[in-house]
Amino acid sequence: MVSEIKRSSYPIGVFDSGVGGLTVLQELNRQLPHESVVYFGDTARLPYGKRTQTEIIEFVQQILVWMQSQQVKMVIMACNTSSALALDALRQEFDFPILGVILPGARAAVKKGRRIGVIATTATVNSEAYVQAISESLAEMQSHAQIWQVACPEFVPLIESNRINDPYTLEVAREYLTPMLAADIDTLVFGCTHYPHLADVFRQILPAHVRFVDPAVSVVRAAAKELEILGLRHTDPRSAISRDLTKFYVSGDPEQFAQISSRWLNKMPTVEKVVLSPVELLS
Ligand code: DGL
User: Fold this and answer.
1) Where does 102-215 sit in CATH, by number?
2) What is the pTM (predicted TM-score) of this model?
3) What is the pLDDT of residues 99-145, one digit of tens each?
4) Which of 65, 72, 207, 222 could form a disulfide with 13 if both were Cys (CB 3.0 to 4.6 A apart)?
5) Chain centroid to CA 71: how far?
6) Of 118, 192, 223, 271, which residue is the catalytic one?
7) Residue 31 is inside which H or E element, if any?
8) Residue of 46, 79, 118, 173 with catalytic role
9) What residues line ligand 1, using a CB cutoff of 6 Å?
């Protein structure tokens, strides 16, 4: 039996299909600077938003088994598509806590607005996970709000190919956000962890009073609370440089991930390739 003191120094596992999870990593570094992180990007198989639920459950199960082998003390699914389609199916299979981004994002949204727009991948939109989570949060608060959803399948490939400032990206964003403008939303939820990377683009289109909700902020707050409750929070100030000890792994091309992610990490990270082994399919 490993003591909780020892386990508190184990890393937090964070995964996404690609660079979207970096928005959660940045928040982790801000709120929990003493924690070390194992980051995995399933770049060989992105975008997840176009995958079926069966595929996503299979991929996420492989990632979680691998995370287990990395001795993580907790996993944050820094991917809305995985949180929407695989969290409930897989959570019970592992003995470490697994946090998804949807419920924390929904709770943050209902605290901010009454006309809520959600932009997300096609798979997340079709799952209705946000509509359900926002409705549950509203019921808890005995409050009400209207919800609009728009699937934005072009964003992830554009971000992953480093085309954030491309005029075409602004054009696509304008098209996706037109129904949100027509609905006169007061709050926009980034229902995909890649989308905060486009916040400046969205600002050029939406009026200044529209508030942005980045679920990364609240999922990390929830993670901090959970670690505290479990006695697993790592607070040793000697490891204040632990953010530099974040280890990056991808299933695709490590060079490409290093290039693209350096934009947000402000340095060129060392990235290793991992081949995930198939695990037994769920019955
Ligand atoms: N960043 C992920 C999400 O939050 C996955 C996007 C994708 O690969 O389509 O949904």
Assistant:
1) 3.40.50.1860
2) 0.94
3) 999 999 999 999 999 999 999 999 999 999 999 999 999 999 999 99
4) 72
5) 21
6) 192
7) helix 22-31
8) 79
9) 16-17, 20, 46-49, 79-81, 121, 124, 156, 192-194
